[in-house]
Amino acid sequence: MKTDREQAIFEAGIKLGALYHQWVGTPISRNSASSIETAIEKAVILQPFVEEITVHLNRNLMTENAFGYSELSGLMFEAEIITRVGFTYCRARLAPEKGYPLMIIVECNEIAGLSHH
Asked: Of 1, 20, 21, 51, which has the most beta carbons under 10 Å away?
């Protein structure tokens, strides 16, 4: 039997993993970065259990190729998501750490006094 906490953590992880794999490789430029950030946020927020999502793409890593654009890489992402299952909230992050696009659970809390357990 899964708990709301376990499900909230799972949902955060699966959403960040899907976000990463869906968008890496997307053609991008410094001029289009804000619209891509917005598109990612608007797509992810539609999914079940997602309460909030913020995405920032590091424009300093966007070096243009001969055709005037870059490709979105995992190291460009700084994303934070909050999922909610029942009365449990989970906050997770995707951000570069030591040259790797690391996904971590930042915190997971139940709203005191509202639990049905």
From this structure: 20
